[in-house]
């Protein structure tokens, strides 16, 4: 097919990645136009305190002019607030930690933005994501042959952004293009310099997608009110006396009794127990004592073998599992991390050291309605188990795990304990595949099969 007959809308953000994506498509003969979307107005929540999007739009417009493609602007701030930001507020209020970048791709870039691009005549939408799309034919159980689109990891292992696209479906992928997915970041910079693009030296964007670099508590306080509560340090001794923790330990020992995972005898109830975070039930009692020369009567908490109140916080909803910064507690030899938040009681539980028992878990659950299969024909049936490589956050190296489908949901049992499994985040699973490259060669890549909310 003549590329000139395919009209492609590039989501031009003003950054170097989308700029080079537009450049490559233009060089490949596509009918290209640029569309810049504004998704945020309130500059008071950004750390820089100015309208970063105005500078981004200015750079994007210069890039489009340099490449020689039409430039359009669309304001999607209403859709972004309703479908991404309001969801964020709701999740944090429940004590969960959402991923706005994943939501932005599913709800905005490949939905609201895509529809806007189509109104302008686009056949496809291209972005500067470091990932690849491959299209293959499959034969269904009914003998019907159909095309399916696969999301493959980007060629640059340091920049693979496939995780952010883990919620896309076949309809969205059919319209998607990722021109720089098989290029390394240094090469992208080189191409930008070679073409003298205004964005060649622009730093990569940071912070919340299309909002910018923000102080998260300040951002969340737009709707979530601060409320002081206790920071409780949990001692290692707690776990030996915790019935829930010891039961989870016994279930794991039973699974691995033969040296390898045997899931034949594991019940739904046991998997459910294994996937639940440890609950912390430490009740502190007060006592009165006399202090100083005048023996003034004071009140203090009695020493407790399982933990200690070591500080105060501004609201449990502003913190997340594994967080280290912003606690403002001292007097420890090793770093202190958040190991659990109790929004109902407004308590943050913390533990000292990277190896604290409360930081790691082996199992998580995704409820049935939150399981997403990028390719529907790959869907697991109840009772089925499969081996996949899994990540629970962007940039995390892939972790080997067994996926177990039960009536109560999809359980992911990791070979090794995972640090900082966080409610509200996305788990995405991958498998090795033979992939076709733009050069006509083949390589073994990782295909993202599905995802779900932890």
Quick structural gist:
The chain is of the alpha+beta class and 454 residues long.
Identify the notable features of this structure and list them briefly.
single chain, Elongation Factor Tu (Ef-tu), domain 3, 30% strand, alpha+beta, Rossmann fold, five-stranded parallel sheet, 454 residues, nine-stranded antiparallel sheet
Helix content: 10-25%
Looking at CATH, which topology of the largest domain would you report? Rossmann fold
Low-confidence segments, ≥5 residues, pLDDT <50?
Answer: none
Secondary structure class reads alpha+beta
CATH superfamily of the largest domain: HUPs
Assigned CATH class of the largest domain:
Alpha Beta
Number of helices: 10
* Secondary-structure element series: EHEHEHHEEEHEHHEHHHEEEEEEEEEEEE
The total beta strand count reads 20
Give the overall shape: globular
> What value does the Rg take, in angstroms?
25 Å
Structure characterization notes:
The structure is a single chain. 24% of the residues lie in helices and 30% in strands. By secondary structure, it is an alpha+beta fold. Strands 5, 6, 14, 15, 16, 17, 18, 19 and 20 form a nine-stranded antiparallel sheet that branches. A five-stranded parallel sheet has the order 3-2-1-4-7, sandwiched between helices. The model has no long low-confidence stretch (mean pLDDT 90).
């Amino acid at each position: 097919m003549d590329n000139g007959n395919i009209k492609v809308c590039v989501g031009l953000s003003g950054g170097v990645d989308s700029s080079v994506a537009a450049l490559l498509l233009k060089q490949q003969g596509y009918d290209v136009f640029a569309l810049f979307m504004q998704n945020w107005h309130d500059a008071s929540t950004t750390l820089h305190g100015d309208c970063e999007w105005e500078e981004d739009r200015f750079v994007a417009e210069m890039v489009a002019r340099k490449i020689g493609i039409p430039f359009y602007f669309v304001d999607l701030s209403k859709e972004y607030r309703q479908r991404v930001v309001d969801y964020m507020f709701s999740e944090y209020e429940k004590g969960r930690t959402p991923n706005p970048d994943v939501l932005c791709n599913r709800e905005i870039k490949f939905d609201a933005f895509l529809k806007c691009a189509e109104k302008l005549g686009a056949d496809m939408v291209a972005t500067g994501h470091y990932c690849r799309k491959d299209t293959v034919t499959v034969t269904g159980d009914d003998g019907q042959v159909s095309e399916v689109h696969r999301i493959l990891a980007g060629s640059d292992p340091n920049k693979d952004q496939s995780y952010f696209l883990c919620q896309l479906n076949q309809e969205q992928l059919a319209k998607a293009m990722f021109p720089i997915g098989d290029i390394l970041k240094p090469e992208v910079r080189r191409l930008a310099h070679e073409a003298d693009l205004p964005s060649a030296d622009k730093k990569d964007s940071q912070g919340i997608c299309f909002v910018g670099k923000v102080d998260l508590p300040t951002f969340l306080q737009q709707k979530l009110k601060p409320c002081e509560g206790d920071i409780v340090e949990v001692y290692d001794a707690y776990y030996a006396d915790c019935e829930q923790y010891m039961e989870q330990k016994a279930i794991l020992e039973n699974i691995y009794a033969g040296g390898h995972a045997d899931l034949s005898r594991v019940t739904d109830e046991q998997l459910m127990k294994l996937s639940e975070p440890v609950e912390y039930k430490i009740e502190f009692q007060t006592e009165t004592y006399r202090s100083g020369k005048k023996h003034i009567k004071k009140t203090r908490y009695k020493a407790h073998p399982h933990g200690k109140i070591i500080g105060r916080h501004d609201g449990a909803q502003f913190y997340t599992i594994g967080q280290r910064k912003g606690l403002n507690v001292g007097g420890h030899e090793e770093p202190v991390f958040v190991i659990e938040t109790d929004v109902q009681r407004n308590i943050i539980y913390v533990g000292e050291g990277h190896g604290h028992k409360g930081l790691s878990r082996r199992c998580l659950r995704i409820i049935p309605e939150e399981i997403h299969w990028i390719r529907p024909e790959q869907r697991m049936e109840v009772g089925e188990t499969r081996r996949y490589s899994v990540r629970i956050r962007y940039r995390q190296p892939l972790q080997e795990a067994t996926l177990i489908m039960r009536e109560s949901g999809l359980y992911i049992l990791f070979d090794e304990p995972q640090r900082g499994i966080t409610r509200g985040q996305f788990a995405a699973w991958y498998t090795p595949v033979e992939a076709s490259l733009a050069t006509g060669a083949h390589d073994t890549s990782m295909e993202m099969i599905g995802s779900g909310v932890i």
